[in-house]
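Entry 14. Two folds queued back to back today. First construct below, sequence then structure tokens.
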Amino acid sequence: MPAFQTAASLASPAQAATAGGAATGNSVAAATGHASGPALPVPAAWTVKPFANEQVALAPSLFTVNRDRVLNFLHEYPADRMLAVFRINAGLDTLGARPPGGWETADGNLRGHYAGHFLSALALAYAGTGTAAYKTKTDYLVTALGECQEALNATVGQGDPAAPSHAGYLAAYPEAQFIQLEQYATYPTIWAPWYTCHMIMRGLLDAYEHAGNQQALSIVLGMADWAHSRLGHLPRTQLDRMWKIYIAGEYNAMPVVMADLHALTGNEDYLTTAKCFDNTYLFEAAVAGQDTIDGEHANQHIPQYQGYLEIFERTGERRYFTAAKNFWDMVVPHRTYADGGMAGSGEIFGARDVIAETIQKDNAETCCVYNMLKLSRSLFFHTADPKYMQYYERALYGQILSSRKNADSDDDPLLTYFVPVNPGARRAYGNMGTCCGGTGLESHAKFQDSVYFSSVDATALYVNLYLPSTLDWPERGLSITQSTNYPTDPAGTSTLTVTGSAALDLKLRVPYWVERGFTVRLNGVVQKVKATPGTYVTLSRRWRTGDTVEIAAPFTLRIERALDDPATQSIAYGPVPLVIESSATSYQNLTLYRDYPLSRDLSRAVRPGATPMTFTANGLTLVPFYLNTTANYHMYYRRAEPEVVFGSTDTGVANRAGRDGRTFLDEVWDQGPFAHRAAFIRAVADVSSERFGAGELSRQERQALVVAATRADLPA
């Protein structure tokens, strides 16, 4: 594992970015003061709110290693290459720069989208580090995009057939794709023009919100006016038909941007335009709680529900909230792999509760998790329901932490597109110019955005993620420093140190995977808390400088079964998915029950490996998924327990599956852990009787199982 280093350590000495390119020198500039724009108003429907990114500073950790690699890429990659396609379209000098490549080519139908991601990531990098070079580069991009918009504005109404229909248009290609979509053109004749529009608008809005660039707001407001001019007059039937078209009708989070602009300005045209993006056939089904997303393009639709949530925040129309909430429940856990990725075929959602059957070489597009994390945190703001942050941890410590190669590059983002879970899979890194190569930049630039939340009235602090960091909370006169080696320390210990004085409810998340040993110590004294996995525990007091809170969430090994096939399983260690190292393209078989103790402690069957956080089982090596290499791996394996065996005691009875797919041994051990042998024998007797009553065991088999259980000498 590479040594930890902070973004600031990459720079010595710090130098500002040169116009149109990377900063001079080989490193990132030193931190300076922040100059972010005003935050969006807190919606009245929220009960919880986030902190600004600049209020949370990350300390060196597993997360900052690859974050800093991404920040270095943002710092070094020439801005003029991102701008080339815009300048070509506006008739301006490209300054000799070539487009980045990938989907960003001079004639690509999605060109321009990646610059939006790049701009968002730069603004987030500035907010997260305070490094001046990121703001300098952000400002350069915004200025250049403003020049392109002005050049296009100058052609409006001048008789040029290629001119935009309305002032404010900004893209890397003429308006034709938008016109063709209104005529129901399909992919690949056109390619998601409103998706690209969204990425550009989002980048500009992030430049305003996170880097304080006022011109960015002016540019994006012009784009919003143009968007209203295109869509505001179209009939609902036409809009519905447009948004139903595969890929061509994809618009990502356009309603989010338009709702945000309405929140900033109060301009009702922007809210009207946000509602133009209602995708009626899926929206109405979600409101009714009808799961109809099987076969739908996952990332085409996930951001739509974030849009509905924000429309609810602007209007109070409850059906928009209901649609977002119900959709999330259709995805988690019903279409989710062990690492939090989306289950289905390639980019397409699979059927509900069908996991094992969907496993193939192209699974779990990284963009989907990026957008599910956004939706999860937003739903938490409304409900404070712990399930949203439990999924957030699963996906963040699973797929996102595993999506960036552990290598340096100045000209390649080295990010994943798919994160496959098939036997013998390999991760492919790169993705310059693709959607996942863009969202991955943003994900790595904003790891701090969900570590802590506050109640809206600032009387409670939520500690959502155990990640080394410092929260600066001047509103309450507090600073909270979190020290931890999570998720590489199996002790799962995190320590919070308080500076300042205030009365506060401190809410600590109890991870969903905790099986035993979760404890909280306040100034060294163990606290009596009801630590139910998947909830929060609360410490209420007046906090003072020097107070410490130590949280211990010891890692344990656990098995997760695929919903549609209990014999298809994965293993995790605390929050970390483990994968089997193997180039075989068929499932590996694991036999584990014969090594189970009464405590059901999986560590008796899956033994520690030669290095920390690695294990062995049945002669196979399991490693953390966050080791980002191109080696072959197996996320899932097949459980092979052909005969009922209790320790070294054979029964001679086949370990048959029951009606729900679980085997006899599954049903017995699912009742554990067992406090003593008598409890284990009783479980065997109960399951044997149930199976006999269902005609699944003969009388002789039932007797043999109970006799063997009484003879078995299982360790505690």
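Second construct, same run, same settings:
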Amino acid sequence: MKAFHTYGFLKKLPYITNLTASVRDVLTPLLFIFVTINASPLLAQNGKSYYVDSKNGNDDNNGNTIQQAWKTLNKVNNQPFKSGDNIFFKKGCTFDGQLIIKQSGQAGKNVVYSSYGSGANPIINGLDTLTDWKPLGNGIWETTCLIKDSKLNILLLNNIVTSMGRFPNSDSKNGGYLTFDSHVGNNTITDKNLGNNINWTGAEIVVRRTHWILERGKITSHISNNLTYESKSTIEFKDNYGYFIQNDVRILDRLGEWFYDSEGKKLIMFFGNNEPSKYVVCVPKYNTLVDISASAIMLKGITLQGSNCATISLAKCAGVTISQNNLKFSGKYGIQIAGANITIAGNVIEKSNDIGIKGTFMPSGKVTNNIIDKTGLLPGQGFDYTGIDLYGDDLTVSNNTITNSGYDGIKLDGNNATIKNNVIRGFTSVIDDGGGIYLPGKLFKNRNVLYNIISDGIGAPDGTTKVGNSPSEGIYADDSTSYINIIGNTISNVAGHGIKIHNAHDIVIKGNTLYNNKTQLILDHDKNPNGGLVRNITVTKNTFVPGPATQNTLTLASPTDDVKDYGNIDSNYYVNTTGNSPITVKTSLGQLRDAQLATSITSTIFDKNSKNFALLSPSGNNLKAAPANNVLIKTNKTSKPQTIILGNGTFVDLNGKQYIKSVNLAPFTSLILLKK
């Protein structure tokens, strides 16, 4: 902070010298606070400020001024900071090593870790560049790799996250999966085509046990066509599903494929005819890059890169704020949290190999305004493959943008939770039977899913028997979930169901727009012993727009004829582009009985006040084309009102209002328009 005499400075301002002494006495301390805030990197909170400069600092300095800055993270880690202290890292600098935060602040007097100066945010770097490669022959090279874990969870080749070698390669048939025919017990599979020309004992197997589990374990025995491996799962295998082999030197055949020898501490990589010196290969040096075991902490405005497990770990803490940081290259988790009243706000979290934000216990937490991208996209190198996965009561997840997740966009366990105004795009690409928003089957109450924009649930059929029929859901309320409000969401282009209610009860589905999903909404009761009856479901004021004739609008499924008892379905809008009945019934009683039930409940029980918009061709026949040719969906994915430009022509909404050239949309809303 620049030092000057405050009152001497103020006397130079003409409007100050003309004030009375009493007024001047009041304004002077207020202006002093203003000047202090703007002259220093951050308000000092009545504590001390310390500076760290990796280029020009010296750990023998006192750290109290920019000129006396420290140099290393090791110096910072060993200081007894107190409430209200600020630790500033110089912008444009890179700091190698871990940041370990152990001293707590107090409420209103955080210990703050932030930045000063100009230029790019400071970088805390946990990556190590590997050199001294030695040839092993056939394009394979090795070097020493001294990571602190038995597994290497992430590797970068020229700054690109690269997967370990696998057999078959990912671009082989069936998406790179072999098929097992049967299984024995919990950890042995049989593939009649495997043989034992190569004994895979000691390698890793990655097994698609079910749609939602891609399990990784070390192979302990390979006898004939049988592979036995280390498994912790109790979920039954699905025979005729897929598997592949990884982490073995014998399968390296593509540039950048690698194998980590944990016993010899060697990294082995395939370079082919290329020299390793032409490439930059980086691995993480630490399991955790920023380790926080203190309360009343703020970490703000820093780039954090490279961890074998969690880039930021919060444990046994409360009142911590992680704000406006950029996290990338996390072996498992971008942020791992076990603490109360934690705020995660305004961060960019990208390229995490398992979960972007993992809250194992996070009561009263807030996750807001973050961008989470490219999470869990490498099969066999994650477990959950999820953007945000939280557990705890009184959680708020709002205004986040979550793109390109291998499984769920958001998964949330807990009571009194709000998931609101999030944009979720691209999910269930590695494993499926999950959703853009997934609410697990537990007896939690009062969860609100409000005004989210969800699209492009991809589905992951490779390694399963469901070719072309992937169970990807926009919003998924699973076994025994209850007391949920699903209101005002827009869900489109999902391979499975826009909204799936599975063995759940006491749920309100209101004012949602569901467009071009394989099925727009399903209320599904099956014989799963973990589930319950579908009851007290309210479906009202929703807009359903199926696409091709192969899509369904609203499906009621049950092993019996109890679908009439599911709840209340009324006052909805159906845009009929398929010529099919809006409600489809699926039971175990046969197609004729299903059709009779659908007709009966539509005419006597449900949808007495709903509106059905049949799009007609000039000849008067129901139009069979996809809705993209005849129906527009316009969406505002931002937190501000927007004017959306329309194409040529005149459009009407489902209430008959006419639009030409443009339409105004409120934040996180959408509108279906029919072209006249």
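Quick look at the second one. The first helix runs from residue 6 to 11. The chain is about 5% helix and 45% strand.
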